[in-house]
Design a protein that fits this description.
This protein is an alpha+beta fold. It is about 25% helix and about 20% strand. It has helices spanning about 25-30, 65-70, 200-205, 205-215, 230-240, 265, 275-285, 315-325, 330-335, 340-355, 385-390, 395, 435-440, 445-450, 460-470, 535-550, and strands at about 10, 90, 100, 110-115, 125, 130, 140-150, 150-160, 185-195, 220, 225, 285-290, 315, 360-370, 400-405, 425-430, 430-435, 455-460, 525, 560-570, 575-585, 590-595.
Amino acid sequence: MQALIKPIVVIFCVLYGLLWFGVEFEDVKRLLNGGDLFVVEKGVQLGLKDDIFDKCKLENGPLWTEYLWEWLDPVGDPMRSCNHSYAPWSSLLPDGRVRLTEACPNEAECRARAILWKGDYGKDFREWHEIREEYVFENDIVEVECSIDGKPAYAFLHTQIWAEGRKKEYPRSKVTKPASNVPKPPSVHIIVLDSIGSSHGRRVFHQTHRYLKDKFGAIELKHMNKVGENSRPNGMAFLLNKLITNIKRDIYGVPSVKAEWNYTAFCRTYLDDKGFILEEFRKAGYKTLMAEDWALGVFNWPGCHGFQKKPTTHYMRPFQNRLKMNVKELRDSMGWQNCFEPHLFLNDYHEKFIRAYPDSPKAALTWASDLGHDSPQKPFHADGQFRQFFERNKAEFDDSFVFFIGDHGLRFGWASLVWDAVTLEEADNCFVEDSERLISKDAEMMANLKQNSGELLTMFDTYATFIDILETFRDGGEGRNMSKTMIKPELKGSSFLRPLPTDPRNCKTLLIPPQYCICEITKEQLNITNDHRAIGDAIAANVNERLAEANISYICAELEMDKLTQLKRIVGATDLYDVTVQLRPGGGVFQVIVV
């Protein structure tokens, strides 16, 4: 035990909370948000057995425990008290004209305008048109505002899909394409639920998962390992095939992996023509859509450039940018009190996109952040909403690849501190539904997917699967051979529609930072004594050193150990321990590997 209290620490797990004098600095976030707190003294021998990290034991934790039943209410509905009788004063007709509804007071004076995309942070407001003009809006986002006696009384944002090539006429003209003997490629629909991990996804979306399995034969990928702390590194992985965090693998005894992109590359550089998967589908002739329910989405928070050119055929960003302006009348009309929710606006826009292009292959990405980002309780009421969404669009999804996924698990709050509550928190919720016509023709592909559903997978494998779909089914996929592993040196993952490479799959061989590895390692609980206080002191000192190295210690309190809350010995290693410590001030909780 003497080696246990040496001040040599390897810190590689989640920082759950730390108080920074009320100031948020991007340098602080970059330092602490992604495993940068990691130091190994040169020459340290970990004394590992040869196979401790070579094997990967994967487990499915219990969906419910006594603690979870105490804290979570699966029938709770935060929208129960909203105004279900509310009706907007305006509507956007299928021909692009705005109409006032019966709910609109006769004395109201109303007008409408188009809002176009003008960069990821901009809005191109066009001229106002009186409703009586019956102006036809040939764009996706239309704002309506009304006043009574000269005072603002109402505002609303409407969406439509004004299809490429559509003519201004009524009834709605269909976008037709020349007849072709080449089968239409299957569409791809990616539905992301932010901060909902594997086990919690199964808890929350019980009805939806059952419907996907029963009606579509959907397969759950049980062990999709996240590759970063938050949305950005995971989004960069499965949407751009980019590694943006260093992977420090000293604990494995193998060389570390340097990030492909640094902060300047992924944040202060535009992402156009960098491999964004929806751009690749668009180049191949797909109609594409991207919609997030937050103006600072996966490629923009906290002030990153995002895209300079419009990345998809239809881009909902002007909608969110306008809502971000916090206009009172918009909040009053479109808020939760009237039963509107951010993810429902996404689903509505998505459905309109599906209907607008019945004869074209489509690739769509919706990303719902508000629903599950801050609370493990809030998403439960949305289960029926998503099941109904899939029911309404069954014909489309029967002919598509559908990815119903999370980007990571809940990262803070009470649930992030309790193991029972975050079982497999590092594993992402991921359901894949294959095109019905493809399944009927390709039992081999379905067998591959079922086989791979129990394997350790990463977000990079998801990107590789998108590329596989794009290339294999470009001409309908006739004559395809799904028995061969897809090997492309530029890809960091492997398509899970095919046999995976025969190499061992573990966190040592895949691009998975060890702090997020879901492979189970046997640990022995130890009693904590006063002799172990030096462990916490060493951890606090290391954190302070890292803050000083980053030149940000002047805005931070100097940390010291408050208490050790957990001490476990890793079986199969000499002097390797899993420690949880709380520091003060701020009560930050660190999970640490101590050598």
